[in-house]
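step=encode ok
step=design start
structure_in=
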């Protein structure tokens, strides 16, 4: 794989940021630096305070049965769609550390004073629309595959239906394919756009276009990054979601350093 400093993609306009080609070694370096940032400015207690009440409310409602039950997994999986926006404060902490400035979890709220807060909010709203669209799509897939089965009355009954019937396995396959498409769109539009809005005086369109060009220039590496994100989020969910308090800030810090290696 090419080193991140070895070559640049030629761009049509001189005002557009140059996009570097990167390799898997750059992903490892971004994760290493992200881990260093996390250890210096740990934010796991903050993420626990946000993640656990949210997931707890959804889980309690799902456990009681009802219309929310089939959406429990899509809601939890949807965290990855909103992750780039939720990690804004983490990008800011990495930016401050890189500049040699003091950084604590309080500084995460400095993003609210960013000159680009309007563009950031606009892109965040767009992610919210994608998240809602994903929930609608997940509901349609559920009705198309398992709509003919009796409505489950508990989380255990729903799990038995999904894992023990042909309809359930169709739901798993089709649902994950649809979810992959949504995740690929979000990755392409936001892999560098949010950090870029924090870092530079650019507009929303230019930040998103740069993110798209970064993916076009590095399709294999960005696909690997998407798999790394998905794998780490899955690992974070397994121990009763506790691991997300580490995984989400780690990925946020690493995304900042990935942006630095991709965009000249």
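sequence_out=
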């Amino acid at each position: 794989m090419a080193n991140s400093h070895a070559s640049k993609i030629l761009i049509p306009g001189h005002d557009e940021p140059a996009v570097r080609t990167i390799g898997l070694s750059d992903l490892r370096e971004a994760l290493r630096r992200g881990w260093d940032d996390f250890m210096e400015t740990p934010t796991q207690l903050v993420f626990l305070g946000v993640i656990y009440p949210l997931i707890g409310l959804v889980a309690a409602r799902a456990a009681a049965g009802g219309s929310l039950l089939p959406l429990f997994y899509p809601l939890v999986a949807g965290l990855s769609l909103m992750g780039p926006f939720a990690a804004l404060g983490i990008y800011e902490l990495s930016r401050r550390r890189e500049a040699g400035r003091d950084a604590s979890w309080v500084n995460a709220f400095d993003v609210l004073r960013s000159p680009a807060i309007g563009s950031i909010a606009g892109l965040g709203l767009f992610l919210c629309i994608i998240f809602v669209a994903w929930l609608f799509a997940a509901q349609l897939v559920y009705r198309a595959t398992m709509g003919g089965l009796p409505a489950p009355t508990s989380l255990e009954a729903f799990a038995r239906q999904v894992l023990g019937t042909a309809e359930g396995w169709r739901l798993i396959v089709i649902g994950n394919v649809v979810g992959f498409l949504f995740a690929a769109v979000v990755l392409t539009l936001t892999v560098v756009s949010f950090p870029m809005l924090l870092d530079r005086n650019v507009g929303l369109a230019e930040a998103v276009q740069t993110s798209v060009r970064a993916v076009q220039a590095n399709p294999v590496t960005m696909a690997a990054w998407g798999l790394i994100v998905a794998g780490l989020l899955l690992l974070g969910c397994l121990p009763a979601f506790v691991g997300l308090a580490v995984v989400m800030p780690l990925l946020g810090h690493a995304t900042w350093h990935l942006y630095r290696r991709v965009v000249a």
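step=design ok
step=annotate ok -> The CA atoms of residues 193 and 207 lie 5 Å apart.
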